Amino acid sequence: MLTIANQYYTLSVDPDHGAKISSLKFRPKDLELLVTSPQISRSLMKDKWPMDFTLADSYGFDEMFPTIDIDDCTVLPWGPVRFPDHGDVWSLPWVCSQSDDMIYSEVIGTSFPYKLQRTITCKNSGIRLDYVLTNLCATSVSVIWAAHMLFVLCEGTHIELPDELSSFINAYDGGIFGDYGKLIRKQDSLFGRHEKFDMHSGLCGKWYTAQKLRQGWVKVVHPKEKVSTIISFSPQEVPYLGVWINEGGWNDQHALGIEPAKAAMDSPSKARQFGMEHILKGYSTETWSLSISSSCIA
Q1: For 198-221, how does the pLDDT look when each residue is reduced to its tens digit (9 = 90+)?
Q2: Domain at 249, CATH number
Q3: Cα separation of 22 and 14, whole Å?
Q4: Side-chain half-sphere of 210: how many Cα atoms within 13 Å?
Q5: Residue span of the structural domain in which 78 resides
Q6: Number of folded domains in the chain?
Q7: Does residue 58 have a pLDDT over 60?
Q8: 245/256 Cα distance (integer angstroms)
Q9: Which residues pair with 94 in a beta bridge?
Q10: Closest residue by Cα to residue 147 from 53, 64, 249, 68
Q11: How far apart are CA 139 and CA 76, in angstroms?
Q12: DSSP character for 37?
């Protein structure tokens, strides 16, 4: 485990497990912001590939690439390839290095030839994550990258969003929001459930912004602990936001998934169907960044 810290944060990365950010603690309140590891042994999973994204892995902050849901890629010249559950990189070991305020990580993909690099810097009152993604083959591939941050969901937790958000699209069939692909507008009775949560519902659900964002930010507010956390990103680089709401409906877990994403609807083929696709061009390199900043509230 690699750990960096300053007066505001302590952040830990697990190189052997997808370079997962396994802990992000806001030190002024001694508050763990992320869902932490369940007490389940992962040893039984190590001889199985591809691995399933089970409860044993559903914690912390993972990188999702090149998909979230299992999907088939048919454009590669060596034949169809199945993108595994929650992608390649969350379950692969990454090569990591560390300095006083920085952790650098990189991984080579398995679904097709690519390299994903991430640099986490812990400076002043915030965390910055800088990404570099390189397609090492000539074929252009439809992909999803998403940050999979599982924040603690407790009584009173809610999110704040840009005023531009007037509709969202349901990405989880049969949960809080009903049928997959359902468009929910501001005037609909369900609209408020995208940002206000019910700890006792026993439900889960997921939504994406229905259009590309013009402002790239979301705020997670924990009023009981009097802490708010802003996740910000460039909408030109990362145009969609997904939010996973687990009010005990999946594996009895209470979690709030904040997922800035390059494409929507949880798989490249579904993103294509809804006109929300992202194409990684052959032999291309893309860069983007995220920032996380927490503060005490009155």
Answers
A1: 999 999 999 999 999 999 999 999
A2: 2.70.98.10
A3: 7
A4: 16
A5: 2-296
A6: 1
A7: yes
A8: 5
A9: none
A10: 64
A11: 7
A12: P
